[in-house]
Amino acid sequence: MTPSLEFNFTGRRAIVLHPAETVRDQLQSRLAALGLRTGAQWPASREEISDADVLFVDIDSGHDDLFPWEAGAAPIPVIGLVRSEAPGRLAWALEHGFDAYLPLAAMGNVYSTLVVATAHQAKRLGHTARDAEIARRNGLRHALVRAVLQIMERDGIDEISALKQLRTQAMAGQMALEDAAVQVLTDNTPMHARRR
After folding, report:
1. Which of 6, 17, 8 is nearest to 46 (CA)?
2. Residue ranges of the ANTAR domain (predicted)?
3. For the domain 13-136, what is the CATH code?
4. Pick from 10, 36, 186, 196: most CB atoms within 10 A?
């Protein structure tokens, strides 16, 4: 699924983490022209990073303890500022799952980099949420089996009919099949009696 693209960054807060003041000033100026509020320093506190809506990081100077989150789990778009293109530094940035990269020689591409970074971040968060939901539902598979067995015994029907009733309940409640199973296990009212 393609994430919806964002094109307006007015009012967002960007933090620029780069040791060179000239780079920080240049990037701040370009971001301000796009309507972003900016902070630029080296190093920045974890609190300041946590308050940002987008983060620009010099990959040559970045390190694991810089971020207040686990590698690859940034809650905001992270853009790597590329200087030397050293393989080890690029590998570090990839390990941290940066959403986009901006070569310092291409500062004119700040806007398109922001668009790409926010799209990648939205897609990344969508995948994370989907994976968490799949894991949650897989953890409830035992409840699904128990609920079908309980419906069969309670209503005197076969497993196909019991599963059909459970699906109907899930659709009526606009919930996952596994959540409907948990509901059945916590409610002892027979299914046919609830439909009256």
Report:
1. 17
2. 122-185
3. 3.40.50.2300
4. 36
